[in-house]
């Protein structure tokens, strides 16, 4: 008998072990197989990314803060959230790939900048922008 729980777990592990490079390779293959490289200019990818971020935003639009915190409790809404997050990620990965941006290095560098902008001593517990911090 097929153990779906075990199979699902192993698929999940497989997915969680994929690196950024592997994800970008899969998206590159997907694009290439459809001869879509010509459409994947930085301008078009940025616009697609913004469009998908808008679709994700639309899922949460008009929800109360409490409803938004509980968004994944509704299976239909949860699927839309996962789909739109995946769309945002896919276009972000494609954009970085096309521009030659090393996502891990870019994130690491930005986190260092953010740590300087938002020192724990002044930023802890408030949501002020860095130029409004004491
Ligand atoms: Mg979408």
Helix-residue proportion:
over 70%
For the report, how would you describe the main beta sheet?
A: none
Computed over alpha carbons, the radius of gyration is 19 Å
The 3D shape can be described as globular
Question: What is the string of SSEs from the N terminus onward?
Answer: HHHHHHH
Straight-line distance between termini: 63 Å
> So, the CATH homologous superfamily of the largest domain?
MazG-like
Broad CATH class of the largest domain: Mainly Alpha
Domains counted in the coordinates: how many? Answer: 2
> If classified by CATH, what would the architecture of the largest domain be?
Orthogonal Bundle
Strand content: under 5%
Which hetero compounds are present in the coordinates?
A: magnesium ion
CATH topology grouping of the largest domain = Helix Hairpins
Low-confidence stretches: none
Number of helices: 7
What are the SSEs and their pairings?
Layout: H1 4-16, H2 20-33, H3 42-60, H4 65-69, H5 75-99, H6 103-117, H7 120-123
Helix pairs in contact: 2-5, 3-5
Bound molecules: magnesium ion.
Magnesium ion is lined by residues 52, 55, 84, 87.
């Amino acid at each position: 008998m097929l153990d779906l729980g075990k199979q699902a777990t192993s698929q999940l592990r497989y997915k969680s072990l994929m690196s950024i490079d592997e994800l970008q390779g899969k998206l590159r293959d997907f694009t290439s197989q459809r001869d879509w490289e010509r459409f994947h200019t930085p301008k078009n990818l940025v616009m697609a990314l913004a469009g998908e971020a808008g679709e994700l935003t639309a899922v949460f639009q008009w929800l109360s803060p409490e409803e938004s915190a509980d968004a994944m409790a509704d299976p239909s809404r949860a699927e839309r959230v996962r789909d739109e997050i995946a769309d945002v990620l896919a276009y972000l990965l494609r954009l970085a790939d096309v521009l030659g941006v090393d996502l891990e290095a870019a994130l690491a560098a930005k986190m260092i900048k953010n740590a300087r902008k938002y020192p724990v001593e002044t930023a802890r517990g408030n949501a002020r922008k860095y130029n409004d911090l004491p």
